[in-house]
Amino acid sequence: MTWKPSRKAGTAKWLYDGVCTDPAVFGALLRLDGPPTLKMHKMETSKFEELIGDLSSSARYSTLCVTSSHVNIRWTDAGEFKFSGSYGTPR
What is the Cα–Cα distance from 89 to 76, expressed in whole angstroms? Predict the structure, then answer.
């Protein structure tokens, strides 16, 4: 997360790219019932933070955190995944 003017409105975008070549491991990480069957999934931010950990960071004189109500999760058959959403200052 970086400091951007749009973070005040909570509309700055974040994206995390990763690779997990074993679908069963990726499914276990997100506590799915087995390997992912969908190419895209929306998960509530609170549930995502329970699985991954607190998603916040300090920047200048404020704290940045995820402001979107859900996190987008994209998965490809090649094992590539992306987590994305919006962030900004807490409301």
Answer: 32
Is residue 71 within 8 Å of residue 47, measured between CB atoms?
no
Let me know: does 15 contact 84? Beta carbons within 8 Å.
Answer: yes
Rg of the Cα trace of the chain? 14
State the pTM of this model.
0.83
Count of domains in the chain? Answer: 1
Residue 69: give the domain boundaries.
Answer: 7-88
How many CB atoms lie under 10 A from the CB of residue 70? 16
* Residue-wise burial string across 22-56, b where 16 or more C-beta atoms lie within 10 A, e elsewhere: ebeebbeebebeeebeeeeeebebeebbeeeeebe
Q: What percent of the chain has pLDDT over 90?
A: 55
Q: Which two tokens stand for residue 50?
A: 């329970």
